[in-house]
Amino acid sequence: MAVAEVESTRKNGQDGAGEQSGEPRIPTVIAEDLHVVYRVNGGGGGRGSATAALNRILRRKPPAGMREVRAVKGVSFVAYRGEAIGLIGSNGSGKSTLLKAIAGLLPAERGKVYTDGQPSLLGVNAALMNDLTGERNVILGGLAMGMTKAQVEERYQDIVDFSGINEKGDFISLPMRTYSSGMAARLRFSIAAAKDHDVLMIDEALATGDKKFQKRSEARIRELRKEAGTVFLVSHNNKSIRDTCDRVLWLERGELRMDGPTETVMKAYEEFTGK
Ligand SMILES: Nc1ncnc2c1ncn2[C@@H]1O[C@H](COP(=O)(O)OP(=O)(O)OP(=O)(O)O)[C@@H](O)[C@H]1O
User: Fold this and answer.
1) Which class does domain 81-273 fall in?
2) What is the Cα–Cα distance from 116 to 130, expressed in whole angstroms?
3) Domain residues of the chain, as ranges?
4) Is 105 in the pocket of ligand 1 (CB under 6 A)?
5) What angle do CA 40, 94, 200 make, to 5 degrees?
6) ipTM reported for the complex, 2 dp
7) Which residue lies with its CA nearest to atom 23 of ligand 1?
8) Helix, strand, coil percentages for the chain (3-state, nearest 5)
């Protein structure tokens, strides 16, 4: 759904970036008391036979060993156009789950997510085809993101140059399975970053690139923000978050522990983790 313009006030007084006095800020993502639950067959029931499964279906009962993982618990925030928002928190705190729920890839158990336009989630696991060449993946990836064939052709060289894949030889014409994980992540980032996004969500992509690439991608994130989008960045690299984001959401055990300006939240987080 499209979200209406709202005045530049925030209920809880937390400060985000891009706020200019008196100018209305445009929300791009609204999460309202969002809960996300995974249901996992823990195997505790042990009865894996087809007859047992059929009986469960007929009785409409969950399997005996079914376990629930409450990965996101009552998270609420409003993201605005022009913000770059870092998502931090310990392993398993719910960062990736939150992004997937915003992208519409996981259903909300309770609460709601509203987004303006279709958010694009760029994860290190984004679906590129390992058996196809980098070249084919750039074309397919571009089309999958909604670029026209002409746009992909026009931006093809920029994408390859940005990724730096060809710096050490003609890798772009080789299958993706011959790439290191860093090279593959760079190509994924470069394809996604070639398009302007209303909401771009990046899951750890920067952590896998080398220093030079990190600098380039941080600069591109700043550009994407200027082009009026909202960027979410999940990272365990505190420096990347500091260099790229002006607001940080800190999740812990699925709950939003803090939401505020980068430095305030990072200081509290570093105290919590002992750096
Ligand atoms: N597909 C899944 N099925 C069941 N549980 C899951 C699944 N994916 C994640 N979880 C659980 O949900 C919780 C949150 O996981 P999530 O991956 O969102 O955390 P994260 O903050 O992104 O972690 P990390 O920093 O390690 O990447 C964890 O307890 C995890 O075990």
Assistant:
1) alpha beta
2) 32
3) 81-273
4) no
5) 115
6) 0.98
7) 92
8) 40, 25, 35
